[in-house]
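Listing S7. Sequence submitted for prediction.
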Amino acid sequence: MLRGEPGQFTGRVLNDRYRLTFLHGADEGSTEYLTNDLETGAKVSVRILNASISEDIEFSRRLAADTAVAALVSHPFVEQVLDWGRFEDRVYVVTEYFPGIALASFLDNGYRLTASQVIKLGFELASGLSAIHDQGLSHGDVSPANVILGYNGYPKLSAIYLTNALIAAEKGRLDMVGTGFSGRSSEFLAPETASGLNSPKSDVYSLAATLKASIGNSSGRRLTAKRAHREHGIERTTEISEAMGAAQPILEAALNADPAERSSASVLAEGLTAVARHFVKPAPVELPENFSETEVLGVPTTDSMTSPAIATDEIYWRPVWKLGGLVVAILMILSVSAAWAVSSVRPQGVSTHLVERYEGRTIGEVRAVADSFLWVLDEDQVRTDELPSGIIVAQWPSPGHRLAEGEMLIVEVASGPRLRMTPLVLGLSTEVASARLEAKGFEVDLVQPVYDENVAAGQVLKLLIDSEPAIGGRLREPGTRVVLVVSGGPVPRTVPQLVGLTREKAQEAIDAIQLSIAKPVNRENSEVVDDGVVIRQDLAPGLLVDRGSSISITISAGPDRREVPDMRGLSVVEAERRLAELGLVTGEIEGSGQEVQGSEPPPGSMLQPGSSVSLWVPSQE
């Protein structure tokens, strides 16, 4: 997908703050968008990583740690990391917006730098690399792909938060699955990285290798395709072109194969500063205008063309021929004088009028002033919470200037309060969703419960505005009234009639409506209900209960019967006690003996409780 083509996330708003407006580029591992920061109004860049790498535990853990550290690095030649977060199933990182061209694209198209341009670039990147190392962070992938040549004439080192997290993910995946990103170019890696070692000294080697690949002929102009291809090979050498002169040993020391003998980033920067006096101050790097959209990282704007406040231009360079400088100075003075003379001439007879302070006055008053002075009034409508509608917020030119008749006075007019971003509330509890809406200036008009079998009671199902479903991320008028549709939980269940059903049938009826039978199940004898049939239930049929509620039931154990025991050989007293324990009654006692010889009914007979049993106690004589 080319930069500038619509991306799948274009127009979306991340974290109620970052609106993705323009696709910069996409690869297998991520997509990058030009973004509006709705909180500050600034342009920023957002890189959204693909879902598979975002879900990797080792990657997320290292990315969070490195992003937090990278955000502390504030240096004019290092890409500023601003924020990070999660979006759906993806991780995103927010950085400053810096329009320019990747050094890799610059070199791949056959362009090279002069020796003095390489020294200047080396000093700038080395000082930025030193700031990164001061925070205890290693870049891990310093290469032309991560050096941006800015349209403002200065470079930036990018992606300082990413490489170490990718390496951690690869190790966690045993180097087999991959991360979706292309690997680091071996041409720019320090020798020790092959053994899994990576340190700030490794970054210094990679920077020196990057500078080496950028060195061209004395003019720095585009090389032939054949030569460019040969110089862009992967031959491992520490030899530096003799064109670098006094800088040659400085760069070769940075390319030392032994990390212990290799210079640090700060030493490299100091060394390049010291040898700069042997070179003429370099001309700005001319970025070609015929690059395709896939090679350009942004379109230069006024806001992004400022130069960094650092002593790059204070490096002492070898002076140029004085006469040439004098000629240039004279020409510049003449051109400025001519421009002033031309600009100071006004058509005869055109009146000018003093521009007063119109901020805080009504647009009606300013229209009258513009009409009286024959000015062209350009009104820009802006929203603000500080001033009522129709009041002037800002003006150009500022008070004290003079405008001729027919010239333009530009004013910004308050057109109403600032629009509010509709927050994401789906899945939140009613209380949290209401608080978030009210904090954004919305009014919760009604909370409407709706039964839902899958969403817990109290969670928001929908947000309605003007009876239409609304999603987060859209700007709306403050005070907009909303309706929250929340889950009322599962539909209540109607208690079924269980009395008269067998235990098995009762269980089937309960399971069908997602209720349950309370444990333990009671059993009770019944003269009229068969064994295993439900006699009673504690919840009345037709009653509405919550899903999962329990119902207590009582099941018939059949009629209550007592078995006549075998009492032969027992005394009359012992036999009477045995019958009483079983709930039976002693009947007639036949005979005058001492031991029971039989009973009526006989042993084993089943009798109702309270039935009488006669004993036969014959005499032993």
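Caption to Listing S7: primary sequence and predicted structure tokens for the chain studied. The radius of gyration is 44 Å. The domain at 493-556 is CATH 3.30.10.20 (Trypsin Inhibitor V; Chain A).
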